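Quick one:
INPUT:
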């Protein structure tokens, strides 16, 4: 393999396996068929809105990103999509001013049908007052003139709790007035609960789309689809290892496959082997070394005598289900192996056992 061929393959691999950014192409999106169908049904049903929730790294933003591709495939060209990313200091005003400045409406400057009639293009945020209410948002969106999808991402980052009440009022008003707009909120589970708690009557106007960790079959689909795009192959054992290490999180699959493909290319191969996955693990750890060290110290530090270090290692060795979870009883054998003390009860170190291996 020449140097030019290696560079070309590495570039293609970086385009396909993207651990640092969500998927934005339908042809690279794997699994999640039920969630895709539910989201599309919400979009095509007037007065319906959606909340996508789940832990970080499961692909919530990627699901929203491929809506446009689905619209093209379905020949629904009369839709426009606008996306706003929330920040810790975001509030109701800043979110909707940000959304509506991306939308324009053409208005006539004088009435009638006379030739040469002047038209003026107005950004919808110009219709908003400084202090925005839910009815102001509803009125502005009614002027859009086309079907609109508004994606509000990272809703869980917002620290201003009043936004939940105002957003619930907005969704209720849009639904009651049958405005041709679908609001898609992306966050975590407690944000969904808070949103509905603020306005119980909006529960019927919101479709709740849970994004769990991906199954191993879905993770394998990511691997196979990505390698098919760059015309590379992978050994069955190596593929199984990547899926198992990913713990249901597509971010890890993308990272390991990117680094493993680079290792194979550097060796002059288009076939990924187990040794390339081993190299990918080292690369991933090196890239996040400080974060991993800090997290480890927080997990095992205690002023009292404990087995936190041993339990953490046992957790890494425990057999998990397809979603990366294990029960406390699953740690008996690996904990006995680590400590060399025979059969131990995992209840002896309960705090680290109360959560799954992440």
């Amino acid at each position: 393999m020449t140097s030019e061929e290696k560079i070309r393959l590495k570039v293609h691999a970086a385009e396909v396996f993207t651990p640092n950014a969500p998927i934005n192409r339908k042809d690279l999106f794997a699994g999640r068929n039920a969630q895709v169908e539910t989201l599309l049904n919400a979009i095509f049903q007037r007065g319906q809105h959606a909340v996508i929730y789940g832990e970080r790294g499961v692909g919530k933003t990627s699901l929203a990103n491929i809506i446009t591709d689905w619209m093209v495939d379905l020949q629904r060209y009369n839709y426009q999509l606008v996306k706003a990313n929330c920040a810790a200091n975001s509030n109701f005003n800043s979110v909707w001013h940000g959304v509506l400045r991306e939308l324009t409406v053409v208005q006539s400057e004088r009435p009638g049908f006379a030739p040469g009639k002047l038209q003026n293009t107005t950004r919808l945020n110009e219709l908003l007052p400084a202090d925005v209410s839910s009815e102001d948002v509803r009125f502005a969106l009614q002027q859009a003139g086309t079907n609109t999808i508004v994606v509000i991402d990272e809703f869980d980052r917002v620290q201003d709790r009043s936004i939940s009440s105002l957003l619930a009022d907005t969704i209720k008003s849009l639904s009651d007035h049958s405005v041709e707009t679908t609001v898609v909120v992306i966050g975590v589970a407690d944000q969904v609960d808070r949103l509905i708690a603020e306005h119980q009557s909006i529960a019927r106007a919101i479709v709740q789309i849970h994004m769990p960790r991906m199954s191993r079959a879905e993770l394998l689909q990511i691997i196979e689809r990505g390698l098919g795009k760059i015309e590379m192959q992978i050994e069955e054992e190596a593929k199984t290892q990547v899926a198992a290490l990913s713990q249901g999180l597509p971010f890890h699959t993308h990272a390991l496959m990117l680094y493993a493909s680079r290792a194979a290319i550097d060796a002059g191969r288009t076939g990924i082997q187990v040794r390339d996955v081993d190299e990918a693990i080292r690369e991933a750890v090196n890239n996040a070394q400080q974060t991993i060290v800090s997290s480890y110290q927080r997990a095992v530090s205690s002023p009292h005598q404990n087995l936190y270090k041993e339990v953490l290692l046992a957790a890494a060795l425990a057999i998990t289900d397809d979603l990366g979870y294990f029960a406390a009883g699953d740690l008996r054998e690996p904990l006995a192996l680590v400590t060399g003390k025979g059969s131990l009860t995992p209840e002896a170190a309960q705090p680290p056992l109360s959560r799954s291996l992440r």
